[in-house]
């Protein structure tokens, strides 16, 4: 998009906002990326969407995003009407010229709409009926979130204006943003840091001296997160901690990475380390909701030739002993006895066998775990049956995805692809599948990275939902992935309960929730190349039909 075209669109959107009286709603400032549309945020401008309000029990609201360029566009209507509602797709604006007339402008816009690739693909319209049955309920949601790594701290600290950081925080955690309430942080360092690090790095520091004071890197991170809470207004931020590695002196190989496990003589020291870290965060104003038994335990056992970042290996047998004899009793007999303990923090292929082997080693050791956390990276290869078997084996556990990003595979570009709708669709499919199969929450990986997909001290670069412009440090770009996640998180608050939502054919993928305020939020995903007529049939409200564009995702809210 040319500069003049972007300015023209920006002015029109501002006029629409002013006329429509949208309050906290601020439209996307559109920019063309490598493969699609981005939304630009600066210190004095960033897009937001005020959550829709319904005036009566028959009204519905719809939030829409599309490959062609819609970003949280809003529309509304009513159940039990003869009208078929239509979500109009984004149309590229036409810049003004000196000799332009009203008629020529209308003609240019009509031609642009008629001859875009997406318009030609959408001459066929398919149809589907979606039945929402709020009386058939499933899991209760814990929420959605992102991760605040050392890389995020570094990028935010380099913003030229503090207002830009505020926009980043609000974009993810404010109600007018994505409404996130979960967050993952590392206990010590991780690969998305400028270097490997941990507390108590001094050789033989079994008393863990110094863990009553924040490391300088956590001083920065904690200050940022406190500011995030302040400016976003997030009411119940739930922080989950996970350690990538113990200090090298506690490990069998005395290194940050490679084939290295925790020495048995330090099992209790490592449990005490976790407890001290929880207290340290609490003392510095960041209550911790949950910790896990460690990040990706197989990295230091099986994948040490490929994983170059800090990691520590566990077998399920060794982890069962550490959890059952050390970490579990240490936490449960402390002032933080109610903290949530998650197990695994690794890939789908380890479910549920990891937990079965733990119980075989220490019967009932898994009882110490409140939840099981998953990394999504191999979900496309290892089927959902792993999860179904897990929920059958451990039906009372809280299930969350605790890390996700794109660019980790050898066949993927290990860097951001600006404007990629394909990557947004990958997110959408993964969210839908896991939520449909019982997951209670989702925590994405870094909330922001630079243009190369870092910083990362071993160049393990990937994509992220927001990308910083580090040439100027004066703006960041919201990717299509950002909006894809928002279609799940924004209108599905903590405490929402999944209900049955059954489409009549494969043209629509969907998931629905009964919110604490008794309203229904339904995600509608049309990944096809044709427009789609969706007839929504609610067990209490009746029905209506809406036509949505090809390659689009929507969130429907109704009473």
UniProtKB/TrEMBL annotation:
Catalytic activity: a beta-D-glucosyl-(1<->1')-N-acylsphing-4-enine + H2O = an N-acylsphing-4-enine + D-glucose
Residue ranges occupied by any Glycosyl hydrolase family 30 beta sandwich domain in the UniProt entry: 495-556
This enzyme's EC code(s): 3.2.1.45
One GO term (biological process): glucosylceramide catabolic process
Entry keywords, A to Z: Glycosidase, Hydrolase, Lipid metabolism, Signal, Sphingolipid metabolism
Protein name: Glucosylceramidase
Family: Belongs to the glycosyl hydrolase 30 family.
Classification via InterPro entries: GH (IPR017853), GH30_C (IPR033452), Glyco_hydro_30 (IPR001139), Glyco_hydro_30_TIM-barrel (IPR033453), Glyco_hydro_b (IPR013780)
An example Gene Ontology molecular-function term: glucosylceramidase activity
SUPFAM superfamilies, alphabetized: (Trans)glycosidases (SSF51445)
Limits of the Glycosyl hydrolase family 30 TIM-barrel domain: 142-491
Gene Ontology cellular-component terms listed: membrane
Range of residues in the leader sequence: 1-23
Gene3D superfamilies per UniProt: Glycosidases (3.20.20.80), Golgi alpha-mannosidase II (2.60.40.1180)
């Amino acid at each position: 998009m040319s500069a003049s075209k972007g300015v023209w669109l920006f002015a029109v959107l501002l006029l629409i906002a002013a006329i429509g009286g949208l309050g906290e709603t601020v439209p996307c400032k559109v920019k063309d990326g490598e493969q699609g549309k981005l939304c630009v945020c600066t210190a004095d401008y960033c897009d937001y969407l005020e959550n829709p309000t319904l005036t009566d029990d028959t009204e519905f609201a719809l939030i829409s995003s599309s490959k062609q360029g819609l970003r949280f566009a809003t529309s509304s209507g009513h159940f039990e009407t003869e009208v078929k509602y239509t979500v109009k797709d984004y149309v590229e604006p036409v810049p003004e010229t000196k000799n332009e007339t009203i008629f020529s402008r209308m003609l240019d816009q009509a031609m642009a709409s008629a001859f875009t690739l997406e318009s030609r693909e959408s001459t066929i319209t398919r149809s589907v009926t979606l039945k929402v049955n709020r009386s058939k309920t499933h899991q209760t949601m814990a929420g959605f979130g992102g991760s605040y790594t050392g890389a995020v701290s570094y990028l935010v600290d380099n913003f030229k204006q503090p207002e830009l950081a505020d926009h980043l925080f609000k974009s993810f955690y404010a109600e007018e943003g994505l409404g996130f309430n979960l967050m993952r942080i590392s206990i010590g360092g991780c690969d998305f840091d400028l270097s490997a690090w941990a507390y108590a790095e001094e050789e033989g520091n079994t008393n863990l001296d110094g863990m009553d004071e924040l490391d300088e890197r956590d001083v920065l991170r904690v200050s940022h997160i406190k500011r995030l809470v302040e400016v976003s207004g997030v009411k119940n931020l739930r922080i989950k901690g996970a350690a990538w590695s113990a200090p090298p002196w506690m490990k069998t190989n005395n290194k940050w990475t490679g084939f290295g496990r925790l020495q048995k003589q330090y099992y209790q020291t490592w449990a005490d380390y976790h407890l001290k870290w929880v207290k340290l965060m609490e003392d510095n104003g960041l209550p911790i909701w949950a910790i896990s038994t460690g990040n990706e335990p197989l990295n230091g056992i099986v994948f040490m030739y490929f994983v170059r970042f800090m990691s520590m290996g566990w077998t399920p047998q060794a982890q069962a002993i550490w959890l059952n004899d050390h970490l579990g009793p240490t936490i449960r007999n402390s002032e933080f006895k109610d903290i949530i303990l998650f197990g695994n923090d690794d890939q789908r292929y380890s479910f549920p066998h990891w937990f079965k082997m733990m119980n075989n080693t220490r019967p009932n050791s898994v009882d110490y775990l409140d939840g099981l956390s998953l990394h999504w990276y191999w979900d496309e290869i290892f089927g959902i049956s792993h999860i179904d078997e897990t929920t059958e084996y451990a039906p009372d556990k809280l299930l969350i995805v605790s890390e996700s990003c794109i660019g980790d595979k050898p066949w993927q570009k290990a860097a951001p692809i600006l404007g990629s709708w394909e990557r947004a669709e990958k997110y959408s499919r993964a969210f839908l599948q896991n939520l449909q199969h019982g997951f209670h929450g989702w925590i994405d990986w870094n909330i922001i990275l630079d243009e190369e997909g870092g910083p990362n001290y071993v160049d393990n670069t990937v994509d992220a939902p927001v990308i910083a412009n580090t040439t100027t440090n004066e703006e960041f770009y919201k990717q299509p992935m950002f909006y894809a996640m928002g279609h799940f998180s924004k209108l599905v608050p903590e405490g929402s309960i999944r209900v049955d939502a059954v489409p009549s054919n494969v043209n629509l993928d969907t998931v629905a929730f009964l919110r604490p305020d008794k309203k229904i939020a339904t995600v509608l995903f049309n990944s096809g190349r044709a427009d789609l007529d969706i007839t929504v049939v609610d067990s209490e409200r009746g029905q209506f039909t809406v036509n949505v564009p090809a390659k689009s995702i929507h969130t429907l809210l109704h009473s």
